[in-house]
Amino acid sequence: MSALQLKELNKIFNPGSIAVIGASNKKGSVGYTLFNNLIGAGYEGVVYPVNKSAPSVQGIHSYRSVDQIPRKIDLALIAVPAKTVPEVMRECGESGIRGAIIISAGFKEIGAKGKELEDEVLDIARDYDIRFIGPNCLGIIRPKIHLNASFAPLMPDDGKIAFISQSGALCAAVLDWCHHRGIGFSSFVSVGSMADITFGDLIDYFGMDPDTGAIILYIEALKNVRGFMSAARHFAKTKPIIVVKSGRCERSAAVATSHTGAMAGDDDLYDAAFKRAGIVRVTRIEELFDCAEALDSQTRPTGNHLAIVTNAGGPGVMAADELLSQGGELAELSNKTIEALNACLPPYWSHGNPVDILGDATPERYRDATSITLRDPNVDGVLLLLTPVSMSDSELTARYIVDLNRDISPGDVFKPLLASWMGEALVEKGRKILESGGVPSFETPESAVTTYLHMYQYTKNIASLYEMPEDILTGFHPAKDEVKSIFRTLAKDGRELLTVYESMKVLAAYDIPTVKTMLAHDPEEAIKIADEIGYPVAMKIVSPQITHKTDIGCVKLNIQTQEGVRTAFEEINRNAGEHNPDATIHGVAIQSMVTGTGYEVIIGSKRDKLFGPAILFGAGGTMVEYIRDQTIGFPPLNQALAHRMIEDTRISKILKNGFRGSPPANIRLIEEALVKISFMLIDFPEIEEMDINPIHVNDTSLLALDARILINPGKVNISVPPGSDLIISRCPTKYNQEWTSPAGDKIFFRAIRPEDEPLWLEMVRSFSDETIRQRFFAPLSEIDHHMVVRYCHIDYDREIAIAAFVEGEEGYRMVGVGRVVILSDENTGEFGMAIRDEYQERGIGNKLVDIMIEIARDFRLRTIIGDVLADNHRMLKIAEDKGFKIKRHEDPSLRRVVLNL
């Protein structure tokens, strides 16, 4: 977080001194409440009121301006009229204040003039290196240090949740609601307009905050999506991030040119972005805290197969219905589990899942049934339901369940355990026992089921972040020049929409199989082409102005004869003329008909102003907008991410398993097509929308039957760095190079990718004990996937690792890696390096250091450092030769090498 100046954020959230600019004696005013909250909550820092006219505020000596305060101030809390905020910010900057919270309203939320004022404030803040929250915000609360730098009336309990909200009014309501429920916070932040500090900055800060265990977000709209995604992906694995996003409806109802444009709405893009970042999205405020508490107290489920243990059949059925309706599964109890339950339950128990242990269930019966069910390998989690009938004992049952939750026997698998003690007064004490014992308790079975499935979604999202992809496009070299030529011709003609003929040529340039397509300009040429292609054929109008061809009779299928071709040609042109007399007709496309069994899918894309290019996959055909079986992803895609996209559709079950005697589809071919489209969108930012629909896929082939591509002609001849509008950084190609070492080795250098996991693993396992000691400073335990993830799944906005490869008879081997990581608290990068033993002292390390210095300069770092064992004389010599200064380290066995850039 070097560029985000985390130290300055610390002055906002852990200030030693605060100036309240606009502090007031007028009860009921914002300035009065802010100052009163600060001095009345037990905050142990120093608070100074600033008021131009009052000699004292609430009995405390006041200052006319911040430059009169005799002490250096960490945080300025600003509550003055909007028009005076620029002047105040300048005074703060000149006084050395580097953190601010602007409570004042009257900025971009009021229109153009307010936006100009906000931009002026931001410019001043940047001139003085001030980081600020707001404007137009409620403020912040830090319960642990009794800091209430807000005008909210309540100080919540101390807790492990950081709550960050774009709505100040919602903050006040949530504070009241959580106070009643006893929910505590590590921090409570109202972000306001986010002119400076954004959600991404705050995720970075609280991701490293030891007092925060989970991060909760209320989002109305994002800005700086790439920074948000980078921060969320970096911390989501270790700290759950849970979000509720308001405004699920479309921003506009504009007519879309393509099916993808119509289906990939704003909320769909947000949903896909959250999923890609590892974030759990919920729909209601209460679900935020239910999910956060459950993830904090329980292990994450590895699957969605839930077992339900209940003393009443009705609630068990309600829970099962909710589970199935939300895409979960009822766990199939094993025979061993059934036998064990038979031994401890009355003979008339349900003998299945839900496990109905009957209305006279004792606490011991609950305990035994739950213990047995938890051990079933088919069960991913257990939900306990208790209704307060006269025979039930909610308190003792709760104590038994808490003990069961704590006492996990050796060899048992940790699984989530949730409860719903239904009712109010009769079960209140039991609920408190459960919650204090780490078992999440819910008022209704439906709430418990929803939380369980959110927990499982978190598991899936995190797994997709770090799943090892296969390298499926080795040797893929698209014909970019051919595509560029087509786009330049369109731009010259002032056209946006490619014809189907041109679109097919673009797809072919990216090695996506297309049905043979030829263009006919009159009936006789159409017949000649059809004879050449072979019957039956399909015929479609080719016109930039006609998009949905089928709807107006401009598509004819399964034409078997020459006369049929002639008739179809005439009908298609007549229908086109009647639909749009002014349309430019380029001709009629003649295609061979695809025969045999198979499935129709769609791959599309849409370039959004906020999210950049997005990729859509789903069930295809003419009914796509009505079926709406779709999923959305973002470039760059790899095989694993493409596979996840396919899995997230309903049609995936048919594609994988086949349907009514038809064999399954070749999933690998769909994955390859998705990844190729991902490359195309990165290479050509001028592509605005794309539909490849339908795509016919079966067990042996994939074939694009129709395509529509829309470009922005104004972007065609503009040089834009590839990937500059992506919300997730792409693997940089700048450092790709071939090099011959002084020893004659032919080495290829490039940035490491997730697909390199097997090569990295093989290299590290080949290291001698001495090489491991020099790189990791200690012996390595068993290397597992989680460790490899750290080194191969990289956010290229935060670090870059360059791998060195040599080609042998069995393919490429990794022989070395150099890595630069941006540190969290200053403009400094840390580097590290390791070389395979047999390739040491051959000049590779020297070359890698040169590349790492180049990377550090590209990151605009001021300093690059590295820790080296004091007896690693070869590395110290390389560093010294490159201009590094060798300094002492707090660990006497190490030396720190430092290069100022």
UniProtKB/TrEMBL annotation:
Residues 504-540 form the ATP-grasp domain. Residues 747-901 form the N-acetyltransferase domain. Signal peptide: none annotated. SMART domains: CoA_binding (SM00881). Pfam families: Acetyltransf_3 (PF13302), ATP-grasp_5 (PF13549), CoA_binding_2 (PF13380), Ligase_CoA_2 (PF19045), Succ_CoA_lig (PF13607). Its EC number is 6.2.1.13. It is an enzyme of class 6 (ligase). InterPro entries: Acyl-CoA_Synth/Transferase (IPR051538), Acyl_CoA_acyltransferase (IPR016181), ATP-grasp (IPR011761), ATP_grasp_subdomain_1 (IPR013815), CoA-bd (IPR003781), GNAT_dom (IPR000182), Ligase_CoA_dom (IPR043938), NAD(P)-bd_dom_sf (IPR036291). Coiled coil: none annotated. One of its GO terms (molecular function) is acetate-CoA ligase (ADP-forming) activity. It catalyses: acetate + ATP + CoA = acetyl-CoA + ADP + phosphate. Keywords: ATP-binding, Ligase, Nucleotide-binding. This is acetate--CoA ligase (ADP-forming).
